[in-house]
UniProtKB/TrEMBL annotation:
GO biological-process terms attached to the record: proteolysis involved in protein catabolic process
Name this polypeptide is given: Peptidase M48
Source organism per UniProt: Thalassotalea marina
Transmembrane segments annotated in the record for this chain: 91-108
UniProt similarity note: Belongs to the peptidase M48 family.
Gene Ontology terms, MF aspect: metal ion binding; metalloendopeptidase activity
Amino acid sequence: MSTFAKFFAAQSSQYQDVTLSVESQQLIVSGEHVNQRVSLDNLVITPPMANLPQEIKLPCGGLLVLPKGSELSQLNSRHGGVIDWLEKNKFACLLALLLVPLCFYGIVAKGIPKLAKEMTPMVPISVKQSIDRQVMYVFDELMLKPSELDENTQQRWQQLWQKSLDQLDLQQNNYQVLFRQSPSMGANAFALPGGTIVVTDELLKLLKNNEDAVMAVVFHEIGHVEHQHGMQLIAESLATTLLMTYVLGDMEGIAELYSGSFTSIVQNQFSQQLEKEADSYAVKQLQAFDIPTSALGDALLAISADHEKLDKLQQYLSSHPSIESRVKFAQQAQ
């Protein structure tokens, strides 16, 4: 059995017509200026795909292009059989359409978070603190203003903070509390990966300087740092973005849109578990300080009442579990 093909010499755009045949496990290429015998094992054969020509790369660097419908059955039986079968099997295509998204979800929802959790302890504290400085620079420019607390009030809170650090047996050099005013964030507190904890003036005002409630919030934020939640989410976001960009190739715009949306929804759902871990840490420390664990629930209720109620879509996108479940957890820990 023989077929016709076009032969391109190495590094040449000119071709000549040749005849191909297979004998004794060798491909015979015959033409006016070409006469080669090549072992089938030394060929690089692209599997036949739909209506596209099939290509065969020769060891000498030459290229054979077989027109549509001119495939050699001896070659295709050795190469590309599975791919060819998948192409022609509608059930296999449908199954792939279902399995590929599920596999992606499994990687993003399970694999990446697990890997991120294992890798984040290896990040040096100096790198985390560098991230803190960069984030605070941006936040101070866009979202935060200098605190309006008087010097005595700030000093009182700093003293309480230092006393708490001593009792918690934490590395004081790895932690700092900053006070800021933030009309856009309102009554809030947040922790950065390197141990920077920011408490807003609005939160202290809302909690009426209740030390137990404020410390409950601070312990919660320390829990995020101790469990390295910040670095974990950064690692997850980076890995997910790289994965989507790699899979989608050079489709830069679609990659950014898809990975950004997917990451936000999935990671915010994951961070519900992280919030529970931080709540558990806060409750444990409140018990160690002989502070009623209900202080955490009181703080959560006050913050929730101060913020606007979320609609159903926002609740799905929210990074926090329901306030009711968290308050109940704090109260039951008494």
